[in-house]
């Protein structure tokens, strides 16, 4: 019984040790008057972000975008940097995406035309 308990404890510690530092809930900057809380979590060997809550000038509201994937297949490339794709709900377009983690902030960038035209946001960690 002690061996089983020890194995379970080691599994929990190992899982926590391998958690990606970007995992968690992040607050976006406002875009077209609204912002969201996005849950960043593993999707296979990459990181994806799903819209968990949405807010506008009146407070929290039930957006049709809740539950949709905003950050798509971000692959860690070292030094807190990630590359993948991002979806912008306001125009329903998918962009080449990059994320850079810096403490409790992430700079998220979406680009078109091979990276010539980009837009960025800085997200803050909620939890």
Question: What is the oligomer described by this structure?
Answer: single chain
Main pleated sheet: 8 strands, antiparallel, barrel
**Global shape:** globular
Query: Compute the gyration radius: what is it?
Result: 17 Å
Number of helices: 1
Order of helices and strands: HEEEEEEEEE
How widely separated are the two ends?
A: 35 Å
Proportion of β residues? over 45%
Write up this protein.
It is built from one helix and nine strands, in the order H-E-E-E-E-E-E-E-E-E. Strands 1-2-3-5-6-7-8-9 form an eight-stranded antiparallel β-barrel. It has 127 residues and is mainly beta. 13% of the residues lie in helices and 57% in strands. The relative contact order is 0.16. The protein has one helix spanning 2-17, and strands at 24-27, 35-43, 46-56, 59-61, 69-78, 81-88, 93-102, 105-112, 117-125.
């Amino acid at each position: 019984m002690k061996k089983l308990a020890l194995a379970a404890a080691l599994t929990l510690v190992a899982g926590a040790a391998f958690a990606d530092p970007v995992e968690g809930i992040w607050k976006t900057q406002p875009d077209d008057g609204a912002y969201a809380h996005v849950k960043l979590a593993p999707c296979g060997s990459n990181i994806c972000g799903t819209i968990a809550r949405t807010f506008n000038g009146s407070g929290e509201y039930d957006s049709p975008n809740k539950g949709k994937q905003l950050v798509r297949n971000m692959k860690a490339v070292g030094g807190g940097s990630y590359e993948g794709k991002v979806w912008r709900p306001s125009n329903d377009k998918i962009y080449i995406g990059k994320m850079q983690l810096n403490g409790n902030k992430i700079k998220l960038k979406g680009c078109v035309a091979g990276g010539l035209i980009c837009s960025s946001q800085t997200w803050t960690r909620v939890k």
